[in-house]
Amino acid sequence: MKILTAEQIREADTYTINHEPIASIDLMERAAYKCVDWICENVGVISPGAHHLSECCFDVLVGLGNNAGDGLAIARILADRGAKVSVTISSPGKEGSADFEINLSRLKKSSVEIKEYDSTLKRIELSEGSTIIDCLFGIGLNRQAKGDFLDLIFQMNSAENRVIAIDLPSGMIADGVSEIDTQGIVAADFTLSFQSPKIAFFLSDYAFYLGKLVLLDIGLHKDHLNSVGAKYHLVTKEVAARFRKHRGPFDHKGTFGHALIFAGSQGMRGAGVMAAKGALRVGAGLVTLHTDKMGVKIIHNQISEALVSIDTGKEAFITNLPNLSGYNALAVGPGIGVRRETASFLKLLIQESSKPIVLDADAINILSQNPTWLAFLPKRSILTPHPGEFARLVGRRLSHYDNIQKQIELSQRFGIYILLKGGRSSLSLPDGQILINDSGNPGMATAGMGDVLTGIIVGLLASGYSAMEAATLGMFIHGYAADLALENESYESLIATDLLTYLGRAFKSLEDEI
Q1: Which CATH number does the domain housing residue 128 bear?
Q2: Cβ count near 420 (within 10 Å)
Q3: Both 154 and 33 in a single domain?
């Protein structure tokens, strides 16, 4: 699914108006009806205890632009359906957009109470128990809210009323920004957005303000939406299903390749075990785990299906590079440590490998100490840092938005993939595109999740998936297995090895999307 910019959404509006054809005011009416239909279907959620719209009360706050025009139309339709509605105009006496003025004239013929915000009193009048509908700003805002608008936002956030934001919470900037004034953003309980998600919806800095996101299809022209180029894309279950390869009746373990994983030193054996199990559970034909002599028995006891490559080092892990010719995919990093000998090994691996490498955890920490090595990574290698590791890699902590821009820069410069893990994991491609993951949950905030992901990705690589396919499908299926695990677990109880149990169901569920 494409994630469009504010400008691209405006262009889609204009194209639809010109080619459907439909008048701008009628397209706004269509959007308003979609919002009211959703509100009617969710009356009990919006106003607990209510069974019909006539039992609900709404206070609609509007600015002067097209988002305000949406709000005026929504207010009129809600009133027509029996709700008690009032509208507060934030900038009385000033002329609004053309569609705002048309909707205001229509509203004056309805039962809706129209109020004007008195900036001298700095107080909005809200009905007891009402739901606020926020239509101060839409996607056109490209700067922080100031003055009276900041006061209005503060009052909305201070009230105990539920808030429904239309298109996006006022004060939120659709295309994302580096500096965010969180005091100037409406904290919505629900956000009813139109047609396409915005990148702001996936930034951790904005997460508290979005509430429950609902995307409403308002019928923007499909031909235009299909043809427009997008920098950001959302990886949904439907998208992930397109990547899944199907097996033939005469395939064998050799068909699905051999993965070699360097992971899990003394005190960190579990990292290697989880990575190897992840690779096996996504269908790698063979999986070899490289470990030291002390780890061999542990590995054999934990994973009967895995092969073991034994390191010759006595003091540090890892110290020697085995012959790589028999392997189809390589992964390195979980639990290997950052000692000098291991760093020397990683440098040699980077120099000797002709295949893309999956690098995680300590492998990324070693790269952070030796940033010039990035230029020598095999093309299409995959880095899977969490935010802390990424901060070390780039030299400082950045906002989520700036992290994504840095991802893009590094992927393009070095021809690699970077999967930045988090509540909304993002995968940057060498061509400058970003894929945002739509699976996963807060229960994944626990040790070992990244080790399983490393195994999943290298297992898919070994099985014949391209680096882009393995990183994209691996990212989604990892999170989706965690979502399925919540049928029996809670956020608190979920652990990394639970995902291994649900990977099979996660893959089978993709068949439903084909």
Answers
A1: 3.40.50.10260
A2: 22
A3: yes
Whether 216 and 306 share a structural domain: no
Angstrom distance (rounded) from CA 89 to CA 164: 17
Q: Where are the beta strands (DSSP E) in 351-496?
A: 357-359, 382-383, 417-420, 426-428, 434-437
In tens, the pLDDT along 14-31 reads: 999 999 999 999 999 999
Determine, yes or no, domain membership for 248: no
Give me the domain span that covers residue 397: 237-242+254-513
d(CA 345, CA 351): 10
Spatial contact of 390 and 422, defined as CB atoms under 8 Å apart: no
Question: How would residue 514 be classed by pLDDT, with cut points 50, 70 and 90?
Answer: low
283: left (phi over 0), alpha (psi -120 to 50) or beta: left
264 and 180 share one domain: no
CATH number at residue 492: 3.40.1190.20
Task: With CA atoms as reference, report the closest residue to 442 among 501, 490, 406, 506.
Answer: 490
Query: Which among 357, 425, 444 has a CA at the least distance from the CA of 387?
Result: 425
pLDDT at 234: 98
0.85 exceeded by the pTM? yes
Interval 234-262: pLDDT, tens = 999 999 999 999 999 999 999 999 999 99
